[in-house]
## 1
Amino acid sequence: MLTRLYYFFSSVKLAVVLLALGLILVFWGTLAQVKLGLYQAQDQFFRSWFIYANLPGTELRVPIFPGAYFVGGLLLINLFAAHLRYYRKGWKYFGIVLIHLGVVLLLAGQFATDVFSVESYMRIREGTAKNYSESNGRWELAIVDTTDADSDKVVAIPAALLKDGATLEEPELPFKVRVLEYHLNSMLATKAGDGFKLVEAENAVGVPIWWRSLPKETRMNFRDIPSVLVELVQPQGTTQKILLSGHLARPQTLTVAGRHLTLDLRPERYYKPFYLHLEDFRFDRYPGTEIAKNYSSRVRIIRPDTGEDREVTIRMNEPLRYEGKTFFQSNFDQEDEKGTVLQVVDNPSWLTPYFACVIVAFGMSWQFLVHLVRFATSRKKS
Amino acid sequence: MKRFLKILPWLFLALFLTEMFFVLKPKADGEMRTAEFGRFPALLEGRVQPLDSVARNSLLQIRSTGDLPLEMVPGWQFWRHPKKLRSTEWLLEVCFKPEVADTRNAFLIHHPDLISELKLGEKGIEKSGLRYYTYNDLRPLVEEIFTQASTASQIESAQRTPYQQQVIKLANAINIYQRLKNSIQPEGTTNFVQLLADYQATLPAGVAAMRAQRTGGEADREALDKFMAIAQKIETAANRSYPRIVPPPHPEQDRDAWSNVGASLLAAIRDQQIPPAVTFYARMAKAYVENDAAEFNSAVVGYKNWLAKDFSKEAGKGRAEFYFNRVKLFLHATIIYVFAFVLAGGALLTIGSWLAVSESLRRSAFYLIALAFVVHTAGLIFRMALEGRPPVTNLYSSAIFIGWGTCVLGLILERIYKVGLGSAMAGLAGFITLLIAHNLALGGDTMRMMQAVLDTNFWLATHVVVVTLGYSATFVAGVLAMAYVILGVFTPVLTARKDFNLGSALTKMVYAIICFATLFSFTGTVLGGIWADQSWGRFWGWDPKENGALLIVIWCALILHARWGGLVKERGLMNLAIFGNVITAWSWFGTNMLGIGLHAYGFMDSGFKWLMLFVGSQVALIVLGSLPLNMWKSFQSHEPPPTPPAAPDHKAAPASA
């Protein structure tokens, strides 16, 4: 039985079948992007073990095709097993070993990237500095205690915990937070409209607010903006309903038991031990056209703990690599071109494709030369 | 006979060399030196180009042709050269004799619904199923076309119907045409020299009156009216012109600050000085209207000499690109490829029956492919020099480069296996890719400036070139496999020679080329990932174009493993290689048709039909390739013993002399 399993997992046939499955998967996943958008298609096809579909006429989700993790994982097993089985000594086969080693590294590296890499964004206006980047899809409910003028105390609750009816308690907070209604993607309005509902909140906005929930966003350049209605329950029983939303420009301020607090539903923040100060953002165009020639941000890296203070320019195709993170020119403030958006990528396995590429290319060239030499000598003989 | 066969290849080569000599030889200008006019530099779409390119690319967008034929010759009468207006001559008419230009059939309208919606059916002329209209035909409809186009352009481009796309295209064509009319002189001017003189004469008094009026003083009404009448014309031209033809006033400070005629004349209000370029162009305009060749030529020479002082670089660029436009190297390479393909095909078909002729034809084809390669390479390098870029920058140039890559591989294969296969493959692939390139060029300028993300010569030179060579290789393997199936099923040649088995030679070739394709597609794809990592911070984003490249890599790996695992033999390998054509075509074109993703630089609205036709043809070939062996002509005769009725077919071929 074991030998049969071993033969199955190490067979070239399995490799061919897996490659064919991969082919179909990639093609299907590409077509699906037209409807689902890039991110959702990625999750369904390329970051999954199986692709699911509804059983016709029911709500039952059944797996209908292996996902990329499944195919990739089996391919990895197959690669190792086949090498154990077919490994032959000699320089003639050295290239083959290298090629497969490179492919293993590439697959493993991409899996690690999927799991470990964190992408976030830094929006900085000219003349200002920031020491944190913001997530593009993850939100948090941040409650900041500003009583002490010198240092803020922050309690951040991930939006994933904001489930309707949930009660959240934190020892640092003078109240419990009860979630009344949470919408993953939402829209706010200052008048009643189709599908809109009046929010029964005691915000200090001054005008009544209507809201409605929206379906999850699939378009490439759009994102979900959540809103939540929470009830703050103080120990003595007084309650206060507050609307928090990614649409609201300013945090809500409160005074509870002599403490000054601000509440905000905002993108999750990743703090850094340094500041980036935007000196200048430039958008160069080709003369007489609107065609972009280059985008660049001149920033100062200011690091209080080491006293580092220097200027760098981040432009298209020339990112800044600093502190294990990479800062890319990603976007800018379209209205006045006086603010930049940097993409911040923290990917510990970013070097693997570089190595993999070198190893595979070397292995392939090796094999190519071996064949060429053999071919040339055989032709000479005949 | 033998001697004739020996010199035949050289005769073919000499014939085409002579043709190329006459193509490349600089041509004499007409009585009026319009070609010299076409060489003058202008700034458009962010780059300096000759007026001829401005005219050509405008005409391509308006009419989908580079020149304007003046008489209609049916397409099948290919030996008749219809009289035509060269692009520059057309531009001269549009700018200086608009009343004549308005009667030319310059506007192509594609969509039958659009033609009937605009009630244009009766008007215009028809050629090969396409209808062309004059500006006079369209004049009463301009308002309506613009309204419809602005409605249609509010819809996202991927969602537009063909009708909406065509309305937008037509509106764009009309817009370009109207703006061209204002590009060298304000539209409707009959004597630009006089207009300039009047402008200069009324300028000081007019400006003084304007100032006086603004400060509430006593304004000279008459001087002001006279001046304003001219200034308004100029202002319209400033707002409605297309290329910027006036060189920067201070080239030592800013070489990019080109301006259009109207704007530079408005600037004269401040500087009290008319730019010399405008004066020269005014003389040309007046002379052209009056058909005064001597004066036109004198103004042209005057401007040429003036440019030589500070703008020799731009003038040189104009001359070079003008020459490039005129010699049409890729067109001539295409013609040679077709001839070579026919000769190589002849060589293959006679290989078993008429060896001497076969060898003579093979040699002819090989020489011609070599010549086509030289012409193709020259065109490629010329383009790179003009653009200052690596060979592949957009879909158009990728077609040219894929053709070039297949030609290199074909020459190598032909050197190794001297049977005509390499030449036939190179001829066919070269012809088809250049034809595709020709059709892609119908959209307008093919040397546009690169968007910021793509503006990096290093990655364009590595990732793009390597990936494109990978495309070339998979197509080469696919075409060779097609040859195997077609020759095998319909002719006996695969096994016709006793000493040399063409079938197994083809198998070796396809296998080797697939290995080569794997190397290039993999390296190219990973290099692309590394570029993405450098520019966007992710190695792999499952973007359609990336996935397309990945598909090719997976497919090549699949073919190789299927072969090694013994899952496929000769014919299986061929069928897989043919399907490789489908995958490569998808990766090259199909992904751009989705209209999504970061690589959607070459979004194509048409072409889907052609892709489907191509896929259909390849599937048909695979079906053919899957026929049982006893239906293959090449393998029938080897079945012992041959059945009598099957035999005469190929025994009937003439015995070699």
## 2
Amino acid sequence: MSDSKDSRKATRGESSSYGTSAAGAPRRVAGGGRTWLGRFVGNRVAPIGLVIIAASLGVALCAPVLVPHDIRTMHPAEALRPPGGPYLFGTDEFGRDVLSRVLMGSRISLAVAFLSVLTSVLVGTTLGLTAGFYGGWWDAVTMRVMDIVFAFPAILLAIAIMAVLGTSVANLVLAIGIVYTPQFARVARAAALTVRGLEFVDAARALGLGNARIIGRHLIPNVLAPVTVQVSLSLSLAVLSESALSFLGLGTQPPTPSWGNMLSEGRQFLELAPWNAVFPGLAIMLVVLGFNLLGDGLRDLLDPRLR
Amino acid sequence: MVSKRWWWVLVVAGLVLPGLPVRAAPAATTLTLGVDQEVVGLDPNLVTAFSSFRRVDFLYNKLVRYNDKLEIEPDLAESWEYQDPRTITFHLRRGVKFHDGTELTSDDVKFTLERVLDPATRSPGRSFIDVVKQVEAPDRYTVRLKLNLPLASLLSGLSSANLSIVSKAAVQRFGDLQRNVVGTGPYMLAEWTPDNFMRLVRNPDYFRRGLPKIDTIIIRVIPDQASLLAGVRSGSLDMATINQGAVITAAKREAGVVVLQKAGLNLRIFSYNTTRAPFTDPRVRYALSWAIDRQAIVNTAEFGYATISGPVPASTPWALPLSKLPSYAADVQRAKQLLADAGYPNGFSTRIVTSPTYEGGSAVAQVIQEQLRAVGVTATLDTVEWGTYINRWVARDFDTMIELRGGDPDPDRFLYRTFHSTGAVNNFLFKDTAIDRLLERGRVNIDSARRRTIYDELQRALIEAAPALFLYVPMETQVLQPSVRGFRIIGNGALYYLEEASLER
């Protein structure tokens, strides 16, 4: 009996149906007969999300060449100019160009989001997989710790962590990373629990495979689907967390622009110069919408019950 | 059927009654005041926050107070005179009643001053009057203070809200007066729901006859400045204190809102920790003064609502004109040269502690950060929440810091405690024997002409020794409804002239 045959049989019977076999060969997903890509394009919302995210990433990567004005030099005489003329999005209280700062702000906002979610995924998935696979005291300890972290309101915990660590971009990544780790641990553990009692895992063990190889070959492919969906949704939450912490003055520090700290400063002039808050606010909204659309679309695609 | 007799009675009543003086009570007037901070307590001798002082002023009186020209005027003391530079006698008003109906006497004044002087009380007002050796009450309406040293700023110190006179009996009954108010002030505490509102009612026995004019004052806590202005605009507030430049600008554009402004006494400074390199070197500290364009900071961070100032608030008569202050014309080349002379031709790196509150001055920090960049100094901002900011201030845990210091009409009170090597709020850890000596001479000279030469010299010395960079004095701003009449704004931000205000709706 081969690994792949067993895994296919197992996954078909279970909820997870992500499209790679244990042996790593691409595998057609049951039902419909259309390819994964075909169904993705056919999905109404996912491609919109993908386009938004791709565009945002493109802007973030090219920001240094796209910005029309220097983002640090202050021009007090040009302070709070309304949108138009040389300043498409207007200027802030220091006479700096809002458009340039929104463009450059995307780099911090997205970089923090991706790096912090990467941290959560690596730590959370590892903990969740091993907890689910080994069970016993390790499971008990790990998941209780995760429950404790999970019990705190996310933003409150992030504020506490930032207050202890001090404000820097690295600490910001760490704080947001810690906050979203339990979600990945739970998702990974649930998938690991489902799979570990199945016949193909027993078979692999009977064939003499070590724990590490069983986790690598049989468990990880089965948690990829739910983790992927979770990644997309967490990214939108991470963008919001970065903005919230920067809004509170605990995140990205001036003069480095991030959408959160721009929003925070712009809020003071909401009446005199609304463009200071509106444009970074729109940017946050757009990116969060993009990640959510993508995440929802992926969930629809990857969850056989919703197909 | 009405009998004839009764008919007569009705006719007479109909003729007479309209002619009688009608004692219809005038409608009770209520003024709603918006403030951005709740107070922790109301014991005037113990509170430390500026927000508390403003409320204490409604409930208590001092021996003397400042008028709107920043001159001392009588409050509970009718008059006073010096017997010699170390003895001063106050004559109290007669018939002043506490809110509980008992009369204020010299015994209460003696008790209050001794309470403030007792180190166990931990009163922030202690340092204002710590030269007082002995308080005597020779009769019911006379108080005599014996001093260790002459103190030119004694009356200024006694005008502080921390020196409000409390009832001896009330303190003995309640322990402290944080929650129980027994004052002599124009208003009495009627109701208090912390973090929401406080209701004050008119004191009918107030010693200034005919005052206060408004029957009830309701104080609402609204932390956001834009919301305070919105409250005044919509009519839910009659009056509010604001300080953010953007909100002041918005208020001035509003037709139905009256904006009162006066040069204030608070001083915005950029503080150095003089025990941390490179700020241990006065040349470095002074060099940065040339790098700073103060007007640019006022224009961007305060929307222009501030006056550039040296160490003595520019709004007081003691301040030297800016033309006589060195380094007040920004000169980047000069700053670079001085830095090079001090051994930093390529600048250095430092950190600025700031907070997103108005006092924490994060916009000021950003402009300074940018201006320092021009002379090669890389400053990183530590934007921290207000509690952390206070903790770091107390622990002296900073390289540099943006601050808003409470000034005073008398130069001694602000400068001595701030820049003397033993000063209570010298958190620059600044030590300079020449400046210490000037500060000591300035406070014991009661002759104002001689004091002036001392403080002129001191101002220049402080700018060159630069324990901090002195930036500007923000304006005090009140926004009110046009119906509030007769209120006078004072540079120290106090609201006690609300007792003379009336409402004409």
